[in-house]
Amino acid sequence: MSNRHRPHQVTSERRDPSRSLLALPGPKTGRLPRFTLTAAVLALMTVALGGPALAADPAPDGRWVAAWHASPTPGGTFNAQECPSDVGLTGQTVRNIIRLSAGGSSVRVRISNAGGAEPLKVGAASVALSKDGAAATAGTTHALRFAGQPSIVIAAGGEAISDPVALKVQPLQTLAVNIHLPAKTGPATQHYFAAQDSFLAAGNQTGAGADKQFTQKISCWMFLSGVDVKAAPNVVGTLIALGDSITDGYLSTKNNNQRYPDFLAERLASRKGPTLSVVNAGIIGNELLTVRPQLQFGYPVPARLARDVLTQPGARAVILLAGINDIGDRSAKATDLIPVYQQIIQAARAAGLKIYGGTLVPFAGSTGTYKGDYGTAKGEQERLKLNTWIRTSGAFDGVIDFDKALRDPANPSRLLPAYDADKLHPNDAGYKAMADAVNLDAIVDAAVKTTSP
Predict the structure, then answer these.
(1) What are residue 415's DSSP bridge partners?
(2) What is the pLDDT of residue 22?
(3) Are 114 and 158 in contact (CB under 8 A)?
(4) Quick one: angle between helices 260-269 and 428-436, nearest 10?
(5) Is 24 in contact with 398 (CB distance < 8 Å)?
(6) Which of 146, 246, 265, 304 reaches 20 to 30 Å from 252, CA-CA?
(7) What is the tens place of the pLDDT at every residue in 209-260?
(8) How many Cβ atoms sit within 10 Å of the Cβ of residue 432?
(9) CA-to-CA distance for 352 and 424, rounded, in angstroms?
């Protein structure tokens, strides 16, 4: 994952149902690795306490699901003008622009201080339907409260969930979420790569009619980690896409929702009968084993699993696509990464989730840009070994063959040129092809069987 940010726009192809590549082998059982105990216990505690991982309201009334998520990281930036997360905010309001994957009758917002070292004072917050750019739809602004109060102090490393707001939203609808930070925040909890413009304004601009005050455009989401909806009864839970920059949608067209989970959301929203919401838990530069020096690359997948996956409201299933940065950046071996996969699988199952493994996409030709073992013969050998294990081990509840969906048949170590942004990341058409490779019927059917009545 480099520091470059180059948008690409490529016309997407129609989905061919015959290209669905999800297989459903029977999972193999085995001894629970020691490292999983913390995550597994966290997940089981969540269930025991009535937390969101498996909680479900009676179906006739709908249930709370995660409709949007951005995995939070500490404040770190490659460009302080576009994303001032390294210094944070003082006496400002951030307007985060986000798109929901599912609709519902009510919403609630999750404000995060996960990357903070000090308590975070939130002076006020609100939510509105987004119109265009920084503009909100007139008459839709709703103030948020926290246990009935208009403000809250969030502990370092913590998160606050707002009280529900009666706001009818549609699947794929865009919201503006406003958060006023009255005091100096220090480095800001963020999601660095948003592929979406958000906005800053001076002072408290959480009320209606403040659109023109948001004069500063930013490229990251700040202090916002999620939006949940009280969904229609046919939305049986949440699917989480977990991974690195390829899940995060790096090099997809900005402000156009072209990440592979976005295309999944569109497919799920168009389904008749039972369906799922979907949220994106990808982080650029993220790894399975290592905390990288760039803070915006976040903590390794196992360290953030409970927060970003296991306790997501309505969580029913997760797609795991990770390890390419470990191989490229750290020269990790498949034998180093397989035990981490096994730990994640065990923790997901302990929380009652189905887990699907995605094969690593081709990356030959990327070493000139990303250095290390990205795209080298040595890196390719480890990628192939890991993909063989993902396909044949039976460890997952199913396998999604992203490698097969994106590779060039004439040169399988490389991305198909029509899907290639920079030899490592797909372009818009490639991200759509990834979503088209997911057998949603199988995932939704499995989720229906595990959903409480």
Answers:
(1) 407
(2) 43
(3) yes
(4) 50
(5) yes
(6) 304
(7) 999 999 999 999 999 999 999 999 999 999 999 999 999 999 999 999 999 9
(8) 27
(9) 33
pLDDT in tens, 135-163: 999 999 999 999 999 999 999 999 999 99
Do 364 and 397 meet the contact criterion of CB atoms below 8 Å apart? no
Model confidence at 381: pLDDT above 60: yes
Across 399-416, average pLDDT: 98
**What residues pair up with 411 in beta bridges, in sequence order?**
408
**Cα(280)–Cα(176) distance, integer angstroms:** 18
Q: Strands 198-202 and 216-218: what pairing? A: antiparallel
Query: In this predicted model, what pLDDT tens digit does every residue of 9-60 receive, in sequence order?
Result: 322 233 333 333 344 333 333 332 333 334 433 443 333 333 333 433 335 6
44: CB partners within 8 A, 6+ apart: 350, 351
User: Which residues lie closer than 8 Å to 41 by C-beta, 6 or more apart?
Assistant: none
